Amino acid sequence: MTFEDEFHRAMVGVYEVAKERGYNANYFLQMLGEYGGLATAKRLLADGTIQYGLWQLKQLGLLGHSMEAAVIEERFRSLFTEEEVQEARRRLDELGYFK
Fold first, then answer.
1. How many domains does one find in the chain?
2. Residue 17, CA distances (Å) to 46, 66, 75, 83 in order
3. Contact 27, 53 (CB under 8 A)
4. 18-59 pLDDT, tens digit each
5. Who's near 29: CB < 8 A, 6+ residues apart?
6. Domain range enclosing 58
7. Residue closest to 66 by CA, chosen among 76, 75, 56
8. pTM above threshold 0.85
9. 76: which residues sit within 8 A by CB, 6+ positions away?
10. Is residue 99 one of the residues assigned to a domain?
11. Is 18 within the bounds of a domain?
Protein backbone atom coordinates (compact mmCIF):
# COMPACT_ATOMS: atom_id res chain seq x y z
CA MET A 1 0.00 0.00 0.00
CA THR A 2 1.37 3.41 -0.97
CA PHE A 3 1.28 6.55 1.17
CA GLU A 4 -1.33 7.86 -1.25
CA ASP A 5 -3.50 4.76 -0.68
CA GLU A 6 -3.00 5.13 3.06
CA PHE A 7 -4.05 8.77 2.88
CA HIS A 8 -7.15 7.86 0.89
CA ARG A 9 -8.11 5.34 3.56
CA ALA A 10 -7.58 8.01 6.22
CA MET A 11 -9.93 10.34 4.30
CA VAL A 12 -12.61 7.64 4.14
CA GLY A 13 -12.10 7.32 7.90
CA VAL A 14 -12.74 11.07 8.29
CA TYR A 15 -16.07 10.58 6.54
CA GLU A 16 -16.97 7.52 8.62
CA VAL A 17 -16.17 9.15 11.98
CA ALA A 18 -18.21 12.23 11.04
CA LYS A 19 -21.14 10.09 9.94
CA GLU A 20 -21.03 8.11 13.21
CA ARG A 21 -21.36 11.41 15.08
CA GLY A 22 -24.34 12.55 13.01
CA TYR A 23 -22.72 14.63 10.27
CA ASN A 24 -23.36 13.09 6.88
CA ALA A 25 -20.65 14.61 4.67
CA ASN A 26 -21.94 13.25 1.37
CA TYR A 27 -20.20 15.92 -0.70
CA PHE A 28 -16.84 14.92 0.79
CA LEU A 29 -17.59 11.25 0.09
CA GLN A 30 -18.52 12.09 -3.51
CA MET A 31 -15.26 13.97 -3.95
CA LEU A 32 -13.31 11.01 -2.56
CA GLY A 33 -15.02 8.71 -5.04
CA GLU A 34 -14.41 11.04 -7.95
CA TYR A 35 -10.89 12.31 -7.24
CA GLY A 36 -9.41 10.08 -4.53
CA GLY A 37 -8.19 11.22 -1.14
CA LEU A 38 -5.06 13.07 -2.17
CA ALA A 39 -6.60 15.08 -4.99
CA THR A 40 -9.65 15.86 -2.82
CA ALA A 41 -7.42 17.24 -0.05
CA LYS A 42 -5.39 19.29 -2.53
CA ARG A 43 -8.57 20.73 -4.07
CA LEU A 44 -9.99 21.67 -0.69
CA LEU A 45 -6.72 23.20 0.49
CA ALA A 46 -6.37 25.24 -2.71
CA ASP A 47 -9.67 26.98 -1.94
CA GLY A 48 -8.08 28.95 0.89
CA THR A 49 -11.27 29.07 2.94
CA ILE A 50 -12.49 26.99 5.84
CA GLN A 51 -15.15 24.72 4.39
CA TYR A 52 -18.47 24.04 6.05
CA GLY A 53 -17.43 20.46 6.81
CA LEU A 54 -14.50 21.58 8.93
CA TRP A 55 -16.78 23.88 10.91
CA GLN A 56 -19.10 20.92 11.47
CA LEU A 57 -16.21 18.77 12.68
CA LYS A 58 -15.23 21.54 15.10
CA GLN A 59 -18.78 21.64 16.49
CA LEU A 60 -18.62 17.87 17.00
CA GLY A 61 -15.20 18.02 18.67
CA LEU A 62 -13.66 16.14 15.77
CA LEU A 63 -10.96 18.50 14.45
CA GLY A 64 -8.41 15.78 15.16
CA HIS A 65 -10.27 13.60 12.66
CA SER A 66 -10.29 16.18 9.87
CA MET A 67 -8.56 16.17 6.50
CA GLU A 68 -6.46 19.10 7.74
CA ALA A 69 -5.28 17.14 10.77
CA ALA A 70 -4.25 14.25 8.52
CA VAL A 71 -2.36 16.61 6.19
CA ILE A 72 -0.16 17.89 9.00
CA GLU A 73 0.64 14.37 10.27
CA GLU A 74 4.31 13.56 9.79
CA ARG A 75 3.56 10.38 7.86
CA PHE A 76 1.55 12.22 5.18
CA ARG A 77 3.48 15.48 4.87
CA SER A 78 5.55 14.27 1.94
CA LEU A 79 2.37 14.09 -0.15
CA PHE A 80 1.83 17.83 0.16
CA THR A 81 3.65 21.05 -0.60
CA GLU A 82 4.82 23.20 2.27
CA GLU A 83 2.09 25.71 1.32
CA GLU A 84 -0.61 23.04 1.57
CA VAL A 85 0.66 21.89 4.97
CA GLN A 86 0.73 25.49 6.18
CA GLU A 87 -2.83 26.08 4.92
CA ALA A 88 -4.06 23.02 6.80
CA ARG A 89 -2.24 24.20 9.93
CA ARG A 90 -3.64 27.74 9.55
CA ARG A 91 -7.22 26.46 9.39
CA LEU A 92 -6.78 24.26 12.43
CA ASP A 93 -5.11 27.08 14.32
CA GLU A 94 -7.94 29.48 13.42
CA LEU A 95 -10.42 27.00 14.88
CA GLY A 96 -8.45 26.55 18.11
CA TYR A 97 -7.11 23.06 17.48
CA PHE A 98 -3.67 23.75 18.97
CA LYS A 99 -4.91 25.39 22.19
1. 1
2. 24, 9, 20, 27
3. yes
4. 999 999 899 999 999 999 999 999 999 999 899 999 999 999
5. 15
6. 3-94
7. 56
8. yes
9. 3, 6, 7, 10, 70
10. no
11. yes
